[in-house]
Amino acid sequence: MLRFLIYPVEFLIYPVSGIMKMWHILLHSVLGLSDSTAWMLSIFGLIIVVRLTILPPAWMQYRAGRIYVNLRPKLSQLEEEFQDRTDAEADDELQKARRKLFKDHDYRVSAGCVPTLIQLPMFMGLYQVLLRMARPTEGLHATTHAPIGFLTSNDVATFLEGRVGGVPMPAYVAMTDEQFTFLNTNHDAVFRFALPFFISAAIFMSVNMVYSMYRNLLTMDYKSSFAVGLYKATIVMAFTVPVFPISFGLTGPAPVAISLYWFANSLWTMTQYITISKLLDKHFPLTPEYEDFRELSKQERRDRVRKKRAYKWGLRRRRLLMVLLPHRIPQLRAANRKAIEDWEYERYAARTKKQEIKDKRREAVKIKRERERMEREANKPPPPGRHRMRRETRAQWEAVPRSPNGPRHLKRS
Questions:
Q1: C-beta of residue 127 within 8 angstroms of C-beta of residue 254
Q2: Which of 74, 85, 134, 286 has its CA 20 to 30 A from that of 29?
Q3: Where is the domain boundary, 161, 176, 202?
């Protein structure tokens, strides 16, 4: 499993490092910028090229998600039409209806997952190239460094010698005094330079997550307990994830080059998400049918939550009364027992009904497949050769009359 995750990253290091090298050649050899400035701008150029490369798959993913959201009322209607059917053709007809609905609205299921499989390795390759250049495995004291994709040992060495605002690119806040001395800098200089970038990255991430939560609330599937639970988990992450750039940047090995990457990448992510969201609202707006369906689903969920809350508070209230009114304990205990039985029976009845329909449908499918298998066996032509001769010999054997003196014999011509 680890190799499966590492090999795509190793493979993508080559194109990512090639893009960064081309930017450095353009800025340093063609435009005549210094090595330090060229390497700094190469980081931003690398982010621009990689993010523009994966922008079309990202748009496809957001577009597919919006189309699917608008199809939820019709998909829910299909589920209601087929939920009580127990015949063998119910599942096949439901899938055919879903496929026809997707085809009519130009929705492809692969458009929702394939772009993620493309974007994630690209992000990992981009981050790994910058991390390996800023923190080589041989250490900062080494005179030669291992190549990183298309970047040679000399490229890595010039990158490590580069400075941004007078601060070395491989320097980070949590370095030891010996490392600061080796890089000819100090803790305060690195701290003053890197902290604004880490704070800016955290702010961009916070804005992106808050806006994303607002957008997810507009497209929330209130009929799915998993979707609601995931949204609640996202609320918790909105307060914890933005803290990571600051905490890791100030206490972990986060070089200045990585702070520049986090700043630029977070800014791009925020801008891209807001822009794509506006384009979606313009070209693929939420339909009135979906908005009515969303409000109805929200109200149904509120009713379920209110009913469950009333059930739990009723149990708690009667338990409290048992303490305050001991003489009514038998009646209150009986009331609690009846409330629990009614609640459990209602849940059990709903689950049992669904399970019975699934079992009947599964049994109908099994009978249908067995019938089709028997029909295929009946319509199957007799096999040639030895098996046919055996069948013909059997027919001849049955046609011969029984001999009174012994077993039947085949007539020979």
A1: no
A2: 134
A3: 161
Query: Residue 114 — pLDDT band, cuts 50, 70, 90?
Result: low
330 in any annotated domain: yes
Question: Do residues 63 and 201 share a domain?
Answer: no
Does the residue 262 lie in any domain?
yes
The predicted model gives 90-99 an average pLDDT of 86
Number of domain units in the chain:
3
Q: Is a pLDDT exceeding 60 seen at residue 87?
A: yes
- For residues 127 and 223, membership in a common domain is answered with no
Choose one of 117, 145, 161: the last residue of a domain. Answer: 161
Domain ranges, residue 58:
1-161
pLDDT of residue 394: 52
Residue 95: pLDDT over 60: yes
Task: State both tokens at 118.
Answer: 């493309």
Asked if residues 183 and 173 have their Cβ atoms less than 8 Å apart, the reply is no
390 within a domain of the structure (yes/no)? no
- Domain-embedded: residue 408: no
